[in-house]
Amino acid sequence: MISEEKHRNLELLERTAGMTANQRLVVMLYALHPTDRSGAVLETAATLAKLVGMAPPVFSRTRKQVIEAGWLEETGKIGHIKYYRLDPRRMGENVVVPLRRAT
Q: What superkingdom does the record give (predicted)?
């Protein structure tokens, strides 16, 4: 039996099939890395690059491509450091709460 988390990760791999290996690695890193309550990964690009064995410039360039493709969104900025999260819409999550009539 496949757990919900494993199913989500397999689905994410399927959805990223047309991307380069480095782009997929960045997406999976953001999907699997611990996050804050908003879903943001609170690590610098240098730390994340080291974690996956990429040179920091390669990681930054690849992350920029992933952002432009709509997979990551900026969640905040402290000084010159920007923080990102995996865009929940890419996983089919409903991020809009439907309105209801006031009675």
A: Bacteria
